[in-house]
Amino acid sequence: MAQNESILANVLEIFRRNPKKQYQVEQIDRMLRRDRLGSFSDMVKALSYLEQKKKIITDGKGHYQLAQENTEVEGIFKANSKGFGFVKLDDEDADDIFIARDYTEYAVDGDSVKVKITAGGNPWNGKGPEGQVEQILERGTKTLVGEFYPMTDAQVKISHFIGYVLSSNKKLANYRVYISQDGLHPQKQDIVKVAIASYPDKNNPDSMTGVVTNVIGNKNLPGVDIMAIVSEHDVRTEWSDDALAQSNAIPDHVTEAEMANREDIRDQPAVTIDGDDSKDFDDAVVLWKLPNGNYHLGVHIADVAHYVTENSPLDKEAFTRGNSTYLVDRVIPMLPFRLSNGICSLNEGQDRLVLSCEMEISPEGQRVNYRIHPSVMRSHGRMTYNNVNKVLDPDNHEELEEKYVKLAPMLQDMAELHNILYQQRHQRGAIDFEEPEAKIIVDDQGKPTDIVLHDRGIAEKMIESFMLLANETVAEDFYRKHVPFLYRVHETPDGERIKSFFEFCSAFGLHITADPNHVKPIDLQKVVAKTTGTPEEAVVQMMMLRSLKQAHYSEEPLGHFGLAAKFYTHFTSPIRRYSDLMVHRMIHAYSEKGTDKKMQDHFASYLPDVADQTSTQERVSVDTEREVNDLKMTEFMADKVGDHFDAVVSSVTSFGMFIQLPNTVEGLIHISNLTDDFYNYNEKSMTLTGRGTHRQFHVGMPLKVTLTNANVEQHQLDFEIYDPNAPKKPHNNRSVKTERRGNRGFRNDHAHKGHYRNNFQKNGNHPHLSRYKH
């Protein structure tokens, strides 16, 4: 123990009060002097002793921080194919804990574990905390998908297993899963789903056992590759008999009885505006100018809650799915097609039940009045974004259908109001990014034939503006009523992350004066404005998105940082999102049955479960869609090995660089292929710098690259920098997968339809950031 136990305890207490804070010697000295505790010499001795005992860590330049040794924490184990892993904690700002191969306690990827931290890590040398798994709390992987390999009759007789499965998940591919004779008996090359019966242990460290519960199909058949991914993510594709029976019992038309007590707005020229290939239409819009100069905007949303009643079989199915999942060649719907494409779809010329949000908006973009009520409507036109954009293009001379010509004045007024609403959102600080969307085109065999980029036009943007306004209006209305409600929230980002982002921006000459601990949306919007049209635009936007939190659902009105909105919900896509269906259900209940304590207690009792489920299933759909895109993009590039491409560095890591092609395809240049020098990685600036040549690679840097390997099975593309003078050499096929890390933002809240826009490739043109979903 140090000579002065009192000063030692006081110094240690300073660190314990703020375990993540880094202190300079002068700061510690001032705090001790303020409380008249010890001398400078005593403090130095205490710091030296605490460092020696590994209670604190230092960068050697007068900065100190508390070490985290011997702390027990809980988190999710993320395995690496080489045997080691990391534990991710619930605190998204906490560092992942490294777990060496010999200290995993045979945990499998996804397991919930208790970990003892054995080394606290050091933020100054980039070394994170280390630990060992003490206990497996809950198995996270209970099923897996992979290829079946049969055993011979002799082997079956000895082992009592019919074969084994190798998982298509690279993090589980090291394990053979032996298949018992119970359950289904697949054939060679079948892709199957397995329920795990036993897990690795000290006696069987490299194997598990299980039962085949589903044969997806032979791996060479069209569509099996996509359905394998769908099955691996447990995206539900089958309907219960009760749900189908309920769906089939619903009339395919609106009855006179259903129209009672609803406002009849069938004479209003409301229209749907969607993509060319859309099949379900859950929102319609109508607009006219009022005598006082204001705009009347009607947003009419399919009244799905009228048909999908609480706790019914259809409701339980929709809750389980959480949302529809949009893949390159199919949609896995939240509701049966009979509803989503039929009675709940606002098809042209058909009477339909809707919930209406009618708003009066001033020429300055202020909402001055509104009503939310049930209606019956009839769509006066199934319109497409492409054709509406042509109507709004003064240079377009292409002849269009009569409905477009007839409704052109209303569409032009809509575009005018959109510009007003956009400026109003911009002035309050809403952060907006524009990027081309990529769509993967596949043939009838599921083979990708092209990747097409599409820029959003005025039509897409104005529908987005109208849906955002309706969502805000509904959220604010029920907040003012002081009743339990479901909100879409995007919380204020962590100050440390924003501080790191500001420091990153300074490298590009962007001097930001905002306080990172009290950052406002408009502060980040100004950063976007400064970089628009510059070479740094993509990288700065990407790094900004990385600093933001992930949008999610909550029963608490926590606001929406990205949209700079105090109140926000999801009201406009009840065919595709359970959150919106739930919002509709509450609107009906509060309107028809009142807002007494009994009704409030009813919704308050299970809203947290709805928020958790919808947030979780949203991420499941995003991950599924992203993995399917990775697969099809790799397939698309498979016959292009050896070709040269223009590219941009999209991310820099310690093991290499991710690069992105103009068509949004992404791959890896491994650091082992940078053979002209030894490169050092700088985490703060995200750069690789050559020791001898001082050549530097950074995010946003243009490169000419050569595709050297396309591993379709692992969804992996490998590139190297193109050198026309370099001799050809065989490619070393490494096992580094181009994983796309989840973006933590709010991009989907700009996508009014609720589609998880697979093309966005993780925000800001960067496939590692698809968390930016509103």
From TrEMBL:
InterPro entries from the UniProt entry: CSD2, NA-bd_OB-fold, RNase_B_OB_dom, RNase_II/R, RNase_II/R_CS, RNase_II/RNase_R, RNase_R, RNR_Ribonuclease
Renumbered residue ranges of the record's region Disordered: 721-774
CDD domains linked to this entry: S1_RNase_R
Compartment(s): Cytoplasm
SUPFAM superfamilies tied to this protein: Nucleic acid-binding proteins
Lineage: superkingdom: Bacteria
PROSITE patterns given in the database record: RIBONUCLEASE_II, S1
Basic and acidic residues: bias regions: 736-751
Matching Gene3D superfamilies: Nucleic acid-binding proteins
Cited SMART domains: RNB (SM00955), S1 (SM00316)
Record's function text: 3'-5' exoribonuclease that releases 5'-nucleoside monophosphates and is involved in maturation of structured RNAs.
Protein family membership: Belongs to the RNR ribonuclease family. RNase R subfamily.
Stated name of the protein: Ribonuclease R
Species per Swiss-Prot/TrEMBL record: Lactobacillus melliventris
Organism ancestry: Bacteria, Bacillati, Bacillota, Bacilli, Lactobacillales
